[in-house]
Amino acid sequence: MKGEVRKLWVGQSVSAAGSSITTVALPLVAVLTLQASPLQMGLLSALTVLPHLVFGLPAGLVADRVSLRRLLVGADMGRAVLLGSIPAAAAVGVLTMGQLYGVAVLAGVLTLLADTAAQTLLPALVPRAELIRANSASLLTTNVATTTGPSVAGFLVQAVSAPFAIVVDAVSFVVSAVAVYLIREPQRVESAERAPVRLSTGLRVLFADRVLGPLTLSATVASLFGAMQAPLVVLYLVRELHWSPAYVGIALTASGVATVVGTLLASTWCKRVGIGRAYLSGQFLSILSGAGLATGLTPVIYFGQMIAGFGMALFGIPQRTLRQSRIPPHQLGQATATWRTLVIGGQALGAALAGVLATELGLRSTLVLSSAGMLIGVLIAALSPLRTIKEIR
C-alpha cells in the first residue's frame, strides 16, 4: 500500500501549499479589492471556523458511510470551483463580500470533509507500525506549507493582485483530485455498513477509552487556552514592546521553522521516550511561548517561540496516531470529526475570551493566564494512563 499512501501524500502536499497561499490572499482580497471594514473582516474570519463547529459531527457520519476516495475527490473539485469563482468574478468586476462569505463557508465545509476523510483513510493504507511515520510526513507537508506559504502569497499578490493569486490554490485542488482519484481504496469492513450511526458515537468512542478520554480532554483544554494567545501576539509585540514588523515576522517564522524541525524528529522521539510521554513533553514545551512573551525580553521571546513551535509537532503527531490506532476503523470518521469539533470549538471560544480578558486584565496578564490554562491540559494528561503508553499496538 506504500504507493497508495504516496498518492494521498502528493494530493495533500499540493493542496496544502495552495491553501497556505489562500490563507493570506483571501483576507487581502477583502482589504485591497473590496475595502472591507473591520466588522466585515471579523465576520469573514468567523465564517472560516463556523463549518467546523456546525458541521463537525455530521461530517463524521458522511466519512463513515461513503467512499473516502470519492469524498476527497469531490471536496477537491468543489474547492477548485469555489476558489476559481473569486478571480473570475474579479475579472468581470462583480466580486462582492457576499461572495467571499459564501466561499469561506462552503470551502470550509468541504475542507472539513476532506480532512476527516484523509485522516480516516490513512490508517487503512499503512500498517499500524508505520502510522507515526505516515503522520509525520503528512504534518511535515502542512507545516512547511504554513511556514513558506505566507511569503509566497505576498509575492504573488504583489505580482498579479490578490484575487488572481487564489488561482494557484484552485489549480492545486485539481492536481490533488487527480492524485487521490488514482488511489486504490481498501474495501470497508462489513460491520461498518451494519453499525448504527449516531451523532453521539464519536463522543462515546473517545471518552469510553481510558487513554483517548484524557487525551481528548487534555487537547481541548490546551486548545482553548492556547487559542487565547493567537489574537494577542502581534498586538502585544507591536503595542507594548514596540517591535518593528520585521522583528515580528522573524519571531513567527522562527516558530514555523521549529515546527518543521520538530516534525522531522517526532517519530524518533516517540520511539525513544514512548508515544504518551512524547505527547506530554510536546504539550509542555508549547506552553513556553506565552511564558516567554510575558517576560518582555527579546531573546527569551525568540527562544520561547522556537521551543513552542518544536513542541507543537511533538504532541501533534502522537495524538493523531493514538486516535487512529485505538479507534475501530468503522468509527474513525465520526470520532475524528468529533475531535475536530471539540478542539476547534475550544479555539473559537479561546479566541473570543482573549479580547474580553485582554481588555479587562491587560495583554501581559492574559498571556500568563493562558499559559497557566495550557498547563492544566498537560496535568490532565500527566495524571492519566496516557503517560504509560510506550507504543501503539
By secondary-structure content and strand pairing, the structural class works out as mainly alpha
Oligomer: single chain
The biggest beta sheet is recorded as:
none
Shape: globular
Give the integer mean of the pLDDT values.
82
CA gyration radius, whole angstroms: 21 Å
3D structure, described in words:
- Helix content is 82%, strand content 0%.
- Helix 3 crosses helix 5.
- The chain is mainly α and 393 residues long.
Label this structure with key terms.
single chain, 393 residues, mainly alpha, 17 helices, globular
Briefly characterize the structure.
This protein has 17 helices and no strands. The protein has helices at 2-33, 38-54, 56-63, 68-91, 97-125, 131-160, 162-181, 191-194, 201-208, 212-226, 233-240, 245-273, 275-286, 288-295, 298-326, 332-361, 363-382. The model is unreliable at 190-195 (pLDDT under 50).
Question: Which helices and strands appear, and what pairs or packs with what?
Answer:
Blueprint: H1 2-33, H2 38-54, H3 56-63, H4 68-91, H5 97-125, H6 131-160, H7 162-181, H8 191-194, H9 201-208, H10 212-226, H11 233-240, H12 245-273, H13 275-286, H14 288-295, H15 298-326, H16 332-361, H17 363-382
Helix pairs in contact: 1-5, 1-6, 1-7, 2-5, 2-16, 3-5, 3-16, 4-5, 4-7, 5-16, 6-7, 6-12, 6-15, 9-10, 9-16, 10-16, 10-17, 12-13, 12-15, 13-15, 13-17, 14-15, 14-17, 16-17
